[in-house]
Amino acid sequence: MSTEVKAYGTASADAPLQEIKINRRALQAHDVEFEILYCGICHSDLHQIKNDFGGTLFPIVPGHEIVGRVTAIGDHVKNFKIGDLAAVGCIVDSCGNCEYCEDGIEQFCDEGVTFSFNSEDKISGGHTLGGFSKTYVCHEKYVLKMPPFKDLAAAAPLLCAGITVYSPLKHWQAGPGKKVGILGIGGLGHLAIKIAKAMGAEVVVFTTSPSKVEDAKRLGADEAVLSSDAETMAKYARQLHFIIDTVSAKHDVNVYLNLLRHDGTVVLVGLPPEPLEVASFNVVIGRRSFAGSNIGGIAETQEMLDFCFEHNITAESEIISIQQVNHAFERLEKGDVKYRFVIDMASL
Ligand code: NAP
Ligand code: ZN
User: Fold this and answer.
1) Is the CB of 286 under 6 A from ligand 1?
2) Secondary structure in 3-state letters for the chain
C-alpha cells in the first residue's frame, strides 16, 4: 500500500507553493525509503514551477538535491540498511539496458531517463514528485551513498549543482596547466570554482554582480572579472582553455567564445529558456566549440560526492524552513542568494 506524506507543491505556474499530500509507492523488493532531512533549491526548480520550458507536469513538487536517512528497505536491498545516510539527485530510473545506461550516462537513456521530479513515472504512473516532501522512495540503484559530511545541509546542493559542474570539468580535463573560466556565480558557479580549484586548474570567474568579485576570490578563484568592465574583459581574449557557462537567462555567449584559446570550448550548463545566438566567426576562427552538458550519471555522481568529501567541498548555504520557500524562490529569481538555499525538511 502506498503511504500518504506531506509535501510542498503547486497546481499551477501562477500559484505559490503550499502544503499538499502526496503518495509514496509501497516498497518494491529493491526500493529504499528515506526520510528527507535537507533539500537544496536549484534554479531548475524555479524554471519548472514557472513552466519556463513549457510542459511542466502539475501539480509539481520540486526538489532534486535530496539528503536523508533510510527508514525502510525492500526485501532484496543489498546496499543500504535502516539508519544509513542516503541521497537522491536528479535521476531515479532509466531502462538500464541501452548503450548509454551501460556506459553509466543514464541521463541520456534511449528510453528517456526518469528525473526525481516532473518526469513520467514509469513505475507508479502519473509523474514523479520531488524532495520538497517528507520521504522519498526509489530503487537502490539510483540512491547515492552520502559520505558523512559534517554539515549535511551544505552538502545537499552537490546532488545537482555539484555533479552538473563536476561532470564537464572532468570531461574537458580541468587540471594543472588548464585555465578554466566560470561564468555566473550562483549555486552551480560557486561550486564550479571550488571543484575546479581542487582539480588543480587555474580559475577565472566572470560575474555581472560587483559584490561577487571579491567573494569569488574568497571561494578560491585566482581571478574574478566584472563582465561589464570591457577593458579588463579585453585582457582575457584568447586566454582560456574552456569556460563553463552557468547563466540561467538569455545572454551573449559570443563575448565568451572570444575568450577561448584555439580548440577551446564554451560548455553551456545553464538553461536560458530562449535560444542563444552564436556568430559563425567566433567558432570558425580558432576551431572553437560551443557545447552543452547535462548533470551526470549515477556512478559519476557518487565519485563527485566522494571527491567533495575528500576535498572538504560543500555549498555556501542559507538554511530556510519550508514555509519560507516562496520567498526564497522570489529571491533566487532576483539573484539574491549566496549561494544556495537549502530547506531544513524538519520544518515540514
Ligand atoms: P543561480 O543560483 O540562479 O545562478 C545563476 C547565475 O547566473 C546568477 O547567480 C548570476 O551570476 C548569473 N545570471 C543570472 N541572470 C543573468 C543574466 N541575465 N545575465 C548574466 N548573468 C546572469 O542558478 P543555478 O541553480 O546555479 O542554475 C544555473 C542554471 O543552470 C539554471 O538555468 C539551471 O536551470 C541550470 N541547470 C542546468 C543543469 C544541467 O544539467 N545542465 C543542472 C542544474 C541547473 P552573477 O551574479 O555572477 O552574474
Ligand atoms: Zn538542479
Assistant:
1) no
2) CCEEEEEEEECCCCCCCEEEEEEECCCCCCEEEEEEEEEEECHHHHHHHCCCCCCCCCCECCCCCEEEEEEEECCCCCCCCCCCEEEECCEEECCCCCHHHHCCCHHHCCCCCEECCCCECCCCCCECCCCCECEEEEEHHHCECCCCCCCHHHHHHHHCHHHHHHHHHHHCCCCCCCEEEEECCCHHHHHHHHHHHHCCCEEEEEECCCHHHHHHHHCCCCEEEECCCHHHHHCCCCCEEEEEECCCCCCCCHHHHCCEEEEEEEEECCCCCCCCCCCHHHHHCCCCEEEECCCCCHHHHHHHHHHHHHCCCCCCEEEECHHHHHHHHHHHHCCCCCCEEEEEHHHC
